[in-house]
Amino acid sequence: MDIRRKKILDRLAEEYPAVECALNYETSFQLAVAVILSAQCTDARVNTVTPDLFRDHKTAYDFSQIPLVRLEKYVFSTGFYRNKAKNIQALAKIIDVKYQGGIPNDMNILITLPGIGRKTANVLQQEIYHEANGVVVDTHCLRNSYRLGFGKDTKNAEIQERQLMKILPKKKWFYFSHWMILLGRSYCTARSPKCHTCILRDYCPKKGL
Fold first, then answer.
1. Is pLDDT of 209 > 90?
2. 91-118 per-position pLDDT tens digit
3. CA atoms within 13 A on the CB side of 72
């Protein structure tokens, strides 16, 4: 890794020493639901929806028993609610019956499940099993890793993830996506990024800006 990138990682680690999932949940299946709901929706919005939903629904079995119309009402404000509700219900039935209620710790299995892509699968493995087998690439990570010169793609998350996995030390995979989210909220916003006050202003190549 070149010196500039190393300095960026060191500065991010200094600024954000403690990172954690921004989604609120109690059980592993609730986490899966929350991540599905977070697609095209902010974590803050998801966290306003899940308290009522999660109060009486803890397990995959619980979610499999919710009438679809009722589930749609719960998740309506997160957007794309019909598709999200359908995927959550289908996932709940598979996890309950085929995996005895547990989220499998296998990327190849996870990405075949309803509503689960690589981003969601990476989140589940990292949060439930504390294993980083990839980099979680959400919109913040996709945009800001490119601006920082850590990747070459701004549209395809899977391509960007493969590039990041080659560039980053594996021990940084878990932290990097959290750092990109926090940086995006504080400085590197989609529109009008605060480059003049950014903690990385001395090292950032400002690609695409």
1. no
2. 999 999 999 999 999 999 999 999 999 9
3. 8
Q: How far apart are CA 28 and CA 37, in angstroms?
A: 14
What is the residue extent of each domain of the chain?
28-129, 135-197
Which active-site residues does the annotation give? 119, 138
Query: Do residues 46 and 38 touch, judged by C-beta distance below 8 A?
Result: yes
In angstroms, the CA 207 to CA 191 distance is 14
If you average pLDDT over residues 2-12, what whole number do you get? 96
pTM of the model: 0.91
DSSP string covering 99-121: STTPPPS-HHHHTTSTT--HHHH
- Residue 154, pLDDT > 90, answer no
pLDDT score, position 155: 82
Please state which architecture CATH assigns to domain 135-197: Orthogonal Bundle (1.10)
Helices within the chain (DSSP H only): 3-15, 28-37, 43-55, 60-64, 68-75, 81-98, 107-110, 118-129, 139-147, 157-167, 173-186
Cα–Cα distances in angstroms (integers) from residue 97 to residues 68, 70, 72, 92, 101, in the given order = 18, 22, 22, 9, 7
Please tell me the class of the 28-129 domain: mainly alpha
Q: Which positions ≥6 away from 69 have C-beta within 8 Å? A: none
